[in-house]
Amino acid sequence: MNLNSFLLMRHEIVLIAVALIILIAEIFTSDQNKGRIRGLAVILFAINAIIGFLPAETGSLFGGMYTTVPLHIVVKNILNIGTLIILIQSNTWLKSEENSDKFPEFYLLLISTLVGMFYMISAGDFLMFYLGLELATIPLAALVAYDRYRNNSAEGGIKLILSSAFSSGIMLYGISMIYGMYGSIYFDMLNPAIAMNSLTVLAFIFFFAGMAFKISLVPFHLWAADVYEGAPVNVTSYLSVISKGAAVFILTIILFKVFPTISDLWQKVVWVIAVMTMTIGNLFAIRQQNLKRFIAFSSISQAGFFLLGVIGGNQMGMTAIVYYMLVYIFSNLGVFGVIAAISNQSGKENIDDYNGLYHTNPKLSLTMMLALFSLAGIPPVAGFFGKFFLFTAAAQKGFYILVLIATINTIISLYYYLLVVKAMFINKSETPIPYFKSDFMTKLGLGLCIAGLVITGFASGVWEMIAKMAFGM
Amino acid sequence: MLNAGIPMEAFLVVSTLMFFAGVYGFLTRRNLITILMSVELILNSVNINFLVFNRFLFPDKLQGHFFSLFIIAIAAAEAAVAIAIIINIYRHFNTINVENVDKMKY
Amino acid sequence: MFLLLGLTGHKMKPAIAGIIGTTGLFISTLLSYITAYKYFLVDGKVDGVYHKIIAFNTVWLQLTDKLHIDLGVLLDPISVMMLVVITTVSLMVHIYSNGYMKGERGFHRFFAFLGLFSFSMLGLVLATNIFQMYIFWELVGVSSFLLISFYYEKPSAIAAGKKAFIVTRFADLGFLIGILILSYFTETFDFVTLTTPGCPAIAQAAGITFMGFSVVTLALVLIFMGGAGKSAMFPLHIWLPDAMEGPTPVSALIHAATMVVAGVYLVARLFPIFALTSPDALTVVAYVGGFTSLFAAVIACTQNDIKRVLAYSTMSQIGYMMLALGVSGYGGEEGLGFMASNFHLFTHAMFKALLFLGAGSIIHAVHSNVMTEMGGLRKYLPITHITFLIACLTIAGVPFLSAFFSKDEILTAAFHHDKVLFFVEYAVAGLTAFYMFRLYFNVFWGEDRHYHHTPHEAPLVMTLPLMFLAVASIFAGYLPFSQLVTSDGAGFESHLEMPIAAASVFIGLVGIFVAMYMYMKPKGAPEKMAVTFKNLYKWSYNKFYMDEVYLFVTKRIIFAYISRPVAWFDRHVVDATMNGFAWAANYTSFHIRDLQSGQLQKYAFVFISSVLILVLSFVYLFMN
Amino acid sequence: MDVLSLLVIIPTITIIGILFTKEKKQARLVSAIGTGMQLILAGILVWMYLAERSGGNTAQMLFTQDYMWYPNLNIHYAIGVDGISVAMIALTAVVLFAGVFASWEVEFLNREFFISLILLSTGVFGFFISLDLFTMFLFYELAVIPMYLLIGIWGTGPKEYSAMKLTLMLMGGSALLLVGLLGIYMNSAPAGQPLTFNLLEIAKVTIPIGAQRLFFPLTFVGFGVLGALFPLHTWSPDGHASAPTAVSMLHAGVLMKLGGYGCFRVAMYLMPEAAHEMAWIFIILTTISVVYGAYGAIVQKDLKYINAYSSVSHCGLVIFALLMMNKTAMDGAILQMISHGLMTALFFALIGMIYGRTHTRNIYEMGGLMRIIPFLSVVYVIAGLASLGLPGLSGFVAEMTVFVGAFQHADMFHRVATIVVTTSIVVTAVYILRVVGILLLGPIKNEEFNHFKDASWFEKLSTITLLLMIAAIGLAPLWLSNMIQHSLVPIIQKLAIAPGI
Amino acid sequence: MEITVHQIMFALFSAIILVFSVLTVTTRRILRAATFLLLVLVSTAGLYFMLNYQFMAGVQLTLYAGGIVVLIIFSILLTSHISQKFEAVGWRKAYFSALASIAGAILCITTILQHKFQATTEAAKEIDMKLIGNSLLGTGRDGYVLPFEVISVLLLAAMIGAIVVAKRKKTKE
Description:
Order of helices and strands of chain E: HHHHHH
CATH superfamily of the largest domain in chain E: NADH-ubiquinone/plastoquinone oxidoreductase chain 6, subunit NuoJ
Mean pLDDT of chain E: 82
Largest interface: B-E, 72 and 85 residues
CATH topology of the largest domain in chain E: Four Helix Bundle (Hemerythrin (Met), subunit A)
CATH architecture of the largest domain in chain E: Up-down Bundle
Oligomer: heteropentamer
Helix content of chain C: over 70%
Order of helices and strands of chain C: HHEEHHHHHHEEHHHHHHHHHHHHHHHHHH
Radius of gyration of chain E: 21 Å
Strand content of chain E: under 5%
Helix content of chain E: over 70%
CATH class of the largest domain in chain E: Mainly Alpha
Number of strands of chain E: 0
Strand order of the largest sheet of chain C: 1-2
Low-confidence stretches of chain C: 1-15
Largest sheet of chain E: none
Low-confidence stretches of chain E: none
Number of helices of chain C: 26
Strand content of chain C: under 5%
């Protein structure tokens, strides 16, 4: 073990460094100059994201507690990009008066949760996994409750932290049983050992429930909508995009790495859960008025689509998941970017408020429409490709009925996405949201999303790269 | 061995019962703080599991032992944040009755 | 060789003025005369038989490897004869219309339609294959529709046009299915192949039976249905009387002389198959023809609208022709009926066109076509009067006028074949004479009515065709038809059978005299008659309620019991099911909302119970 | 650049061009130029195609291009055309061109309107040139989705409801289709060889019968929804009734053809055994469709509803004919697609123009239009005649080919179905004449109507373009029929090899 | 089988744990609940002693009993009156929760009891502080330096989070 091998943990280390620099900067800047920290944070994070793309070695550290493979790096980079966009988007909001005394903490908390996710991704044993999970959750609860002046924010925070504690309790119970049965917490030791028996089933399901909670799969999703609604917009986007994406990926690799011997079991579980998630998420989304809540349910159902890749249980599925994660980041952040921009400007978050938006703010509406279409899986935006590949992955394993249910669910989801489109383009309003000029950061954030949406699909290179990495797994 | 004559399953039964006592508490208590206490019960029972397994089945490595150590640490951190939020809730709602914290629904 | 395709040019021509249309048709007429001349006289018979000549043929649409629709020109005795008939009558009508339609709105349109019609009709008769015939058959139907609804602001005209089109369309459906069946079994559309006696395709198809009938019979009956539709045979006749809503020249052209005989032509065209393969089908033709002729004659006796009288008379006469075909055999003497039918077709075209144009002239003068508003017109309309009288005499079968010959041939053929039909026709001959002279006397004799202005004779452009046709009506009977137009192309000697001829002349004269007695001077006799045969009169006056039956079928059954329920079903069942899915989604969505109660503990409860349920189900799923 | 990709590129460039326009006039001018070029290109394509064929090129697909897109999944951007696609492309170009002129006077958000319209057409063109099922599906969805906005924003009546219904039902169809396509993909190559989406490649293998039984219905119904297969046609009346003129034209005229085209090009071509096995179900459904649509049309009061039901009937005939699986019937099906595309587009254009004047589509509120707007009325009558199958116009050619072809089927069931289907020609006549009678003929019902002006130049251009095509096909169908029949050969062969029931 | 001291101790601790666990979640006085929790935690430490995990027992006592419970009591004092008595739990909620919990407990226990854990083959290790220390800072397999570092980040983040959330408004004077 030498210094060089620490570079394997480059992503995490750089992130922690960024966090520390921000912390130090906060301490040593006067109140007048604090505003610059925002710029600093974005720049630092951008640098971090770029560093992430530098070629890296792979391997494992700490006796297998930390492993990194190319695919991990890809996923981390994707999460970096997503977080970068969120940071850019949240700039306007953090500028506001009410956040003036605490916005540097926002960066700290956000980055620490990202670190948690990175560790989860690279975890080689259940302990690291659990620590990463908590690191990705506890500060997040603080972030949800960040907006001290709103009841909803606090309510969201308490709901998140208590239910996550509850779920991690259940998950730990499962892990403890696995440990008891197979005598290790290391993934590489467990992998061949796990066999099918009823206690394993119990333990697996307890564990799975914990993960499902994190991804907000039905029926473990109930916290999600309330928390999403309560949280500040940018935190919601972080929750629904980065946190969820990471969790899905982690679930997948754990299923692949730890439980391949009982894939019969978990494929069935995932099947059931996927169907429920897609359907119930959609059914709830239909009748939402608050856009954040709306997107909360929509992203619940999106999580169900991710499971189509999970159930495939092969490289194809893995690639599809990672690819869709990227697409999903762009799409959902596009939606959230618009919601945030409008929410910051006018405080309006209801679908009805968006009536006639196209006539006053055409560019925002178009962005929103493209992003929604991407979520619904409509060409030519990237969501189409993402969904298609997910379906292909599931179909490859012969889960045609599941694919059929999923495609039917895309129709339901299309319905409610179209409701928003309808509000913006078709409905007339006496008092539409007036025209406003977005600042540079908002434009940049949305621009990145649009570019991502348009390019990701047509440029097959992205997919190919991920596929190559996934095959290396 | 200090535990001679006591079957491992007995420990597990105790911990499981404790676990579900915690679950019951989580499901029924009205006060947010008591809910937090229930969570502690749950985590505690998990700790017992880890330690028991470690001691009875895999004594030569300390994996379970350290796992529960970290769980305790995390429980503390969690409690800290949770209590901070609870206090915040108290400021907003003037109560910490969980049933009143339901402004967002459907 | 005959440049007949030049006729095609007609349709393209927008017929900006009647002159162009007339001129164009005049050229076609000349061409067709030349054709007839060359075909019958110059080329003449080969081996004593008129051969079918394919003047021109090109593949229009390749369907299967064997089936293809061609466009071409087929010349044989009947088609050449039809050519002459059509061009002649059409030319007359064109000339006549120049006067009749003067000052009407849409004068060009009228000539354009007339041109289209003539083109289609020629295409029909010259068709080399049954599908080409069908094509032009449809075109004829459409142009007929257009011409009937010419006065498109008059609701009755629109209704009549619609009715004509739909009824014939319905009949065409039978035609089409017949074609499908025939072509399926014989694998050809081509007339020459089909009508060659002993054609192997037919012979082979004849062996195949379906529900007890030979498929050929089935096909032929269906095809005859098409013919019956166009030729207004019972029960598909109902459109014809209404079609009189069209301008009178149109009635003359389409509904007297040309289009309505298309059905006869069709049967004649396929005659070898009928006669040789499927006598059953031929019997159907005969009886339908016979019944229609009687039925129509009875109705004609009671109608008041002069054009309607003529329309029913047309039906009756076409019934004659059909019957003649039906009782005919194939070849030589046996084919007397065939010859007679075509003969009658020819003569009928002349005198019926004359009658209609005459009627047009009367209407032109009186501005009404109701008989009771006319009377004593002989003073005002001398030329019309004379020509009309000639026509009436002809149709009544007065000796030495053209119809006398053709009708007697038919009666002869019927007499030798089927006595029942013979007596029917015999009665019809009497009725015909009666109703024609009822018309004649009512219009030209009797008292003067109060006219808005004094009726005056039509201009020369209108009377000239009358005169020409009158001449034709008189002398057409002297054409040696039995030499020219026969079932197998070979000629035979025909001669009058005196007893039959005498009897028919007698019955005709009886009819004339009865009419003269009743209508020449108003004596109230008709009313007495009407009272005596009250029910018969009433039924006949109301056309045996056929229209009502149709109305019932269409309005009540098709509209009320098929279409409306279909539309309702579509909206309230099929569509509602689709909407039902959406509704169900919303409904479920609403009813599961309590799941999301905002209560943290309920969430946890769902969480833990889901976990337990999953465990329970999967443990037992896997342990068993 | 190859000629086929240009078909997709020109619309894209047009869209970009419209984005840069400032004024309404410019926007429509650019659209007109773009679609005009597209029309010319389609013409050139037809010419090139015929030249190639007469030059003795007998490849199944011409002008093929193949670019690897997703090597990992073996997804290509593969394009190529045969006679059928060429015909459909020409149809699309004509209808699009006419559509742009028919919507010349769209005022509200006109740039967006033209963009959506052309985007839709891009999808259609792309669909017809695709040889790769993936790109085909992509273009298919691309063609469907702009409909929502087009109907929702520029439509009339209960436009939001209709737009939503149409979009959802069509996307529902594509949901089934997607599963079907994936199923085909998964069985597209023998074990061990790379899977493929390429149509021609898949055609070379025989998909296992078990898989066929599963995926044929999915694919067929998936496409069938767009082809208004009973009982999944209900989007059609509402959708068409609410859509703006050009959209109805393009949708009924072209988009519905995607359904039929997909049915045989994908479902039947690739899965012939299952097609044989299950044809009877769909024959019954389409027979119902044909007759039912026609009867449904009789009692409608709204012009567009009449036409929509008539489309259900006509499109039902398309699929019906396809299912007969012989050359003639399929030839007829394609002719019917083209013919129906043209005449229904013409109908909708006219209805739009009439509506633009009278502001009602209820036939009982109108009457005597012949006198007021003779040009439009005459064209309407001709369109009507084409619809009821008058010889000399395209409808007749198509219908007769279908009937004769369908009747050639050796099986009694098929022939009986054919006879049932033929009865629709009478019913068609009834509803067409009913409309003509009430709408155009008769006395003028409303005094205000007297002020109407007859067609303006762009309306004339729009209608005459379509009319000419209808007449051209009706008068000289042989070249088109030959072009189609030649291209049908491989499909027929594949169907013929497959064992019957 | 004679009853050993250990068994008696175990029975005692278990009894305390179970009874007070239930009491913790059922008592209607909040401070009592906290006290009962403390008792449970202490008895758990007792169990750890029995298992020969002195270090863990110590941590349990200090961190859990000493830290968390105190934190909880503080917050109780901040947010409630000491003598405050809760209303009784609604019967439906209690009933269903109890049902779920009991069912869960039965399910888990039967499953556990059915399962035959593999008997140990390893020699018990004496756990002294040195071993614990070495393991905690070890970098190889069964070394826990990485979790150790990560949890420090976690604690930092949690601290910041707690501060951010609990910070009062700046007074704008």
